[in-house]
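I have been asked to look over a protein record a colleague put together. This is what I was given:
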Amino acid sequence: MLGPGAVPPPPAAAPRSATNTRGDCTPRGLPEPDPMPEADPEAIIAALLPATGIPVDPAWRVAIAANLRIAGTIAEALKSFPLPDEVEPAPIFEPGR
């Protein structure tokens, strides 16, 4: 039984199937996804600004593109970090733990 204010743990992850050629797991019978094309920060900016309606000074576009490139580099580093199947997200965030 959980105490007051306690958050229940997340449900157990579904079991994974066969390991594919990249070393990660893909459900059986599904083809491996095509590799993602390299992101074009200028194309991302051009697509998202009209959709969001956020006014952006044209002089900021260079800085926005630089930040998108940095975010992409960080994302690639995170995606390449191997995690075993046994790793589960923490049900409660506890700083410093």
Summary: The helical segments are 41-52, 61-80. DSSP finds two helices and no strands in the chain. The CA atoms of residues 7 and 92 lie 7 Å apart. The two ends are 24 Å apart (CA to CA).
